[in-house]
Structure formats: C-alpha cells, structure tokens
Amino acid sequence: SPLRDKHVVVTAGGTREPIDPVRFLSNRSSGRQGAALAEAALKAGAQKVTLVNVNMEVPLPEGVEEVKVSSTLELEKALDELFDSLDVLIMCAAVSDYRPAVVSEEKLKKTASDTFSLELVKNPDLLAQLGARPREGKVLVGFAAETAGGQAGLDFAKRKIQAKQADLLVYNQVGNEQGFGDRPNQVQVINRQGEILGQAAGSKQLVAEKIIEIIINQSILKDAA
Ligand code: C5P
C-alpha cells in the first residue's frame, strides 16, 4: 500500500468554544465522516492513523491513536504538535469561525435585562495556517460544505482550496436533501487547479473509502511508494 509507511491524521467532530465553566458554542458535527475516514485509512494500510477527537459523538474505530481536544485553540496546539510527523492531514472537523472574546471564570448570571450580548472574536483558520507552511511530501485535505449548488458551489470550493493552499478539497453540497442526517452524503473532490478528481455518493463509509483512494492516487504519495 502507498500508505504503508505513512502517518495519517484525521480531525473529526466539532469544536466547542467555552463561554463559562458550564456553557459553550458549538455545531452539529457528530464526527461520523471523520471516524469513517480514519477507519478507511487503516484498511488501506496506513502505518499509523491518529484521530483528533473533537467532541465526537460516535465511538472511535479500533486501531487508531486518539488525541482529544475540545476548542479551536486546543485543536490548533494539537495540530502544531502533530504536523512534523504527519504525511496526510484530513481536516474533517467543523471548526468554529468565532469564539467568545472572554471566557468567564464564574458561571454567568441571569440579569434583569431582556437581552444579552456575547462578544465573539475570530478564530484562526487552522487549515489556512498549515497550508501556508512549507510541507514537502505532505498532503493537506480540507472539507467544504456549501449550500450553493452547481457551478456556483464548485466556484466557492475552488476559491476555498486556493485560499487555504490545501492539496485537495472535499466539496459537499448541503441542503436540498443532501448531506444531512441519514441521507446519503454526496461529495466531489477537487484539486488546486479546480479539477474534479472524483466523486462519491452513498454512506459515509463509501464516501470515506473513495476519498482515501483519491488521496492515495496523489502523485506525492505514489512517488514515495
Ligand atoms: O472556511 P470553511 O470553514 O468552509 O472551511 C472548511 C475547512 O477548513 C474544513 O476543512 C475545516 O476543518 C477547516 N477550518 C479550519 N479552521 C477554521 C475553519 C475551518 O481549519 N477556523
């Protein structure tokens, strides 16, 4: 397998941004697609698969190494520590674009006012930060869920892969009966030139296997094998 001496890192789940000791801001990502990707990478013969567990709601596949984080800043630190040793990074986790500007040490109290404002500050774009680093021989894979369909959605995805300097982007059209809950996932994988390298529709397992196959076909990994 072209992955036999490769370390694959997959982020899965969704970040939680603390507000106070008992509250957080988050999203609905369960970590299912990330777990399926880690399992598919192991099946495809990867030497080592690290699953960065970002509040996953599903069990981890057997055989992966787990790194547990919760917030975007924790994820940033974990990826920083893993970056040198990894060969493939699949950024499947849903990362919050913003976090509360201040994390209260005490539980916030209800006030007399009928409204409450929470100030948010922008989180770093982790994939873009890693994409800007020198990375000979490493393959960076991003995800993009877009509600726009057809050419417009694909154009957004092309702009995203270029902005983040990733090698591959898994573009997922959400809404219109796709991508949510038990409905089959449908994805297209594009490269930096915007070419569609492949597509898959079906279960998260099937989609994961197809994505891993496309990653394996990248010349960087092929040449090394
Ligand atoms: O920009 P957008 O959130 O649509 O990009 C999605 C991709 O970028 C995913 O791969 C996600 O893990 C990654 N991302 C990130 N840091 C952020 C936001 C998204 O690494 N702050």
Automatic annotation (TrEMBL):
Domain of life: Bacteria
Pathway field: Cofactor biosynthesis; coenzyme A biosynthesis; CoA from (R)-pantothenate: step 3/5; Cofactor biosynthesis; coenzyme A biosynthesis; CoA from (R)-pantothenate: step 2/5
This enzyme's EC code(s): 4.1.1.36, 6.3.2.5
Catalysed reactions, as listed in the record: N-[(R)-4-phosphopantothenoyl]-L-cysteine + H(+) = (R)-4'-phosphopantetheine + CO2; (R)-4'-phosphopantothenate + L-cysteine + CTP = N-[(R)-4-phosphopantothenoyl]-L-cysteine + CMP + diphosphate + H(+)
UniProt GO BP: coenzyme A biosynthetic process; pantothenate catabolic process
UniProt binding sites for CTP: D97, K107, P124, D125, L126, L127, F143, K160, K164
Keyword set includes Cell inner membrane: no
Any one of the GO CC terms: phosphopantothenoylcysteine decarboxylase complex
Stretch forming the signal peptide: none
Positions of the DNA/pantothenate metabolism flavoprotein C-terminal domain: 3-216
Alphabetically ordered keywords of this record: Decarboxylase, Flavoprotein, FMN, Ligase, Lyase, Magnesium, Metal-binding, Multifunctional enzyme
Region (Phosphopantothenate--cysteine ligase), start-end ranges: 8-225
GO molecular function: FMN binding; metal ion binding; phosphopantothenate--cysteine ligase activity; phosphopantothenoylcysteine decarboxylase activity
Cofactor(s) the protein requires to work: FMN; Mg(2+)
Cofactor annotation remark: Binds 1 FMN per subunit.
Family note: In the N-terminal section; belongs to the HFCD (homo-oligomeric flavin containing Cys decarboxylase) superfamily. In the C-terminal section; belongs to the PPC synthetase family.
Known function: Catalyzes two steps in the biosynthesis of coenzyme A. In the first step cysteine is conjugated to 4'-phosphopantothenate to form 4-phosphopantothenoylcysteine, in the latter compound is decarboxylated to form 4'-phosphopantotheine. Catalyzes two sequential steps in the biosynthesis of coenzyme A. In the first step cysteine is conjugated to 4'-phosphopantothenate to form 4-phosphopantothenoylcysteine. In the second step the latter compound is decarboxylated to form 4'-phosphopantotheine.
The name this protein goes by in its record: Coenzyme A biosynthesis bifunctional protein CoaBC
Organism of origin: Boudabousia liubingyangii
Lineage, broadest ranks: Bacteria, Bacillati, Actinomycetota, Actinomycetes, Actinomycetales
Parent-protein start and end of this portion: 198 to 422 of 424
